[in-house]
Amino acid sequence: MTTANSASAGASTKKTVVIRNKGALRIESLIVLALLVVVMSFASPFFFTLPNIFNVILATSTIGILALGATFVIGSAGIDLSVGSLLAFAGVVGAFSVAALGLPWWVAIFAALAAGTFAGWINGLVITYGHVPAFVVTLGMMGVARGVALLITDGQAIYGLPEPLIWLGQGRPFGIPVPAIVFLVMAVVLHLLLSYTRFGRHTLIIGDNERGARAMGVPVRSLRIKIYMLSGLMAGLAGLLTTARVNAGDPTAGMTFELSAITAAIIGGTNLFGGRATILGTVIGALIMGVLQNGLNLLAIPSFWQEISIGVVLVAAVWLDQFAKRQKE
Amino acid sequence: MLQITDVKKNFGPVEVLRGVSFGLDAGECVALVGDNGAGKSTLMKIITGVYTASSGEVTLADRSITGTAPGEIRELGIEMIYQSLELASQQDVTANIFLGREPTRKIMGFQTGVIDFKSARAQAEEMIEQLGARLPSVDIQVGNLSGGQQQSVAIARALTFSPKVVIMDEPTAALAVREIQHVLDLIKELKSRGIAVILISHRLTDVFEVADRIVALRQGVVIADERTEDTTMQDVVAHIVGAH
Amino acid sequence: MRNFKNTAALAALFVAGATAVSAQDDGLLYGAILKTPANPHWNAMTQGIEDAAASADGVEVVVSTVANEGAAEQQLNNCETMLLREPDALIVGAINSNILLPCLQRASEQGIDIVDLDYNLDREIAEGAGVDVTFTAGNDGHDTGAVGAEFVAEQLGENPSGPVLVIEGLPGNPVGASRGEGFRQRLAEIAPDLEVTTLNGDWDRGKSANIANDILQRNPNLQAVFAANDTMALGATEALLAAGRDDIVVVGVDGSSDAIESIRSGRMTATVAQFPYLVGHRAVELLNQINMEGAELDSYQSTGQSVITQEALEEGTDEMIQYLR
């Protein structure tokens, strides 16, 4: 016990500001984003301008908001494949409530958010109390939500929303698109939730060691249900914003977005098997995908290349992470 | 202090515990011995609230805790150190010590779910220092620590909130000789502070060094409950394997 | 061997059953092998087919659809099952040029008429595989694109110049590609000073909104957008309006109900309406002519298309407007 009761003295004097969860932020993803920004800036003179930066964040906001929810879900060693369908479902419910039922515009906001949260609650209940794997439950919900959205609308997009709702998707206070603002605000809120509260801490702990968490008295079931509700709420929010942005509740919106959201979270350093996740990482992951798409659009490069490049970045990010880990050991 | 009365547990048609009773007093160490499958860990999981007994009762200081949730049982003062440690390997030492009991901050007079990192960290350092554990820092990820260091974290977690009863499941099984003595010394210290200890161990030398009583479990029933000084290692082995 | 016998017996039973059904009435049976009813375009087409069959004596139509736009194998299964009914004709909206060929080839061998809807079958490939297409009903994508180009050029006035964005569908999809190509070719003839950029909107509203935004960054003096369907055109419309640009001409293709509403309220400029209801309706009418009157038809049957603008909707003079669905 000579060299060693070291946790004490020395450590407490250094660093006054502690970044929570700093070990979990994957620096590689930040480097990739920076590199992309530099390359795109040289490739296109239109890229590094303030309006285009807002534009990138606007284009990223839908996948980004879904990815914020996915960060919690994957961090807790779960998976939510239903968010793309829930986006369409919530958007349709919102549009339906104003366009078909004639309810006031603010009801549509609540209806869309409630629709997403409700579906998330069902996901959580079946997963925890029904003991059905999350992959299966949310795969089922993916089909059910899409089907219900098509059923409500008879396959046709519900077109035409009242002005205040359209503003949610198309408004630009101070030149900044509303969905971009919502995305960034939600990112800050969920960052605080994940890194500074018991809810966030427990989310990562049940992703790390569920049995241990239960033995230590963490209410695992209710926590999981809340996590899927949060994911559903984010899908509802994303659905509301896209619907407002394109002025239509489209039952076919958001196809395969669940995979993009998972991709963003993984690029951002979320451990696919749970236990490690940061919101900052996820935002960076989503921005990498957004910058790639925006840049390739600016250069008028066909969309095959977007798919290829995002696939390469995904695998490269995880490979770099594994490589760094092995170096450490 | 802790009293177990006629606890039974069956999983479907399989009867794992067939009426177990024993008790322990403050400052007493009871060793629970028995072969694999004798029902030791099921019994412990009933005490900690992870399982619910099919029948029977567990009381702590004359208050029934049967059917209480694991978190509440910890609040009441029963801690368990699992053989598998049950740590979150991607979290730091502080987070593991306070797992499930993170101190929170009041904001503008309201109780919130915001973790008080500063006080948690300070208390974690204090606890680690008290235990004399060799850790590089309380900010390190637990997965990066050695087995012995990880066990120190699990022990620190069990002791931070002044427990009344501590259950240790094979605490010495994975340790080097020097570290084993450290754990045995710790058990003696807990006893001297009036904490009741249940020690589950296959290492009878350890059991005879620290236990006041030895309870042998076989096929779901208590077949012997004797004071350590009244028995011998041969007797205990005989109880365990059923050769008497 | 025994198994084989059983299967053969079962198949014989099936065929017998099917014959029995069609033997009951001496009318005509058409099998429609369509895409997903979740797509309004195909929904309207189905209605046209069913209405036309209902209004003709002795014509029965069996419609089979698939779950989504990509369910090619399911469509092949539908086609195989349909053959068991021994139809007089197949009305086919193929998901791609290849997947149905084995089934259609057997249909051709059995002398069943094959109607291609909307140019989804590539004639060269089909003939190479021994599939005899009786006729194609619908509009050639090149013509549709050309109609769009003429409208855009007309809107932009004398000798227009500046950037124009073309949004095609999923990469590799022939319908989107031919519409885009027809647009570009015609535009190059009549308004050579316009510079065209082409990107894929994957038939998706949100993605097309992003593309419109991005191109607006690059080309703030964007003149017009032509999208290969209305869904994408509507996404682009809303993105441009959000950026405060109501001066840009946006043209889609289809004539879907939401596009019509958008045009009526002055948001989207126009759509080259395809009248899918009419395509389905005409396909059945023409089949009846062949089967009942022994008519000889050209193998390409254009069903007409029309540029629908706010003006056209208000005046209501275009008689095609009644066929909008």
Automatic annotation (TrEMBL), chain A:
It is found in: Cell membrane. The chain crosses the membrane at residues 30-48, 54-74, 81-99, 105-127, 134-153, 173-194, 277-296, 302-320. Pfam families: BPD_transp_2. Keywords: Cell membrane, Membrane, Transmembrane, Transmembrane helix. Its main location: membrane. It is a multi-pass membrane protein. One of its GO terms (molecular function) is transmembrane transporter activity. One of its GO terms (cellular component) is plasma membrane. The keyword Transmembrane applies. This is ABC transporter permease. It comes from Histidinibacterium aquaticum. The lineage of its organism: Bacteria, Pseudomonadati, Pseudomonadota, Alphaproteobacteria, Rhodobacterales.
Automatic annotation (TrEMBL), chain B:
GO terms for molecular function: ATP binding; ATP hydrolysis activity. Keywords: ATP-binding, Nucleotide-binding. Residues 2-244 form the ABC transporter domain. Coiled coil: none annotated. Pfam families: ABC_tran (PF00005). InterPro entries: AAA+_ATPase (IPR003593), ABC_carbohydrate_import_ATPase (IPR050107), ABC_transporter-like_ATP-bd (IPR003439), P-loop_NTPase (IPR027417). This is Sugar ABC transporter ATP-binding protein. It comes from Histidinibacterium aquaticum.
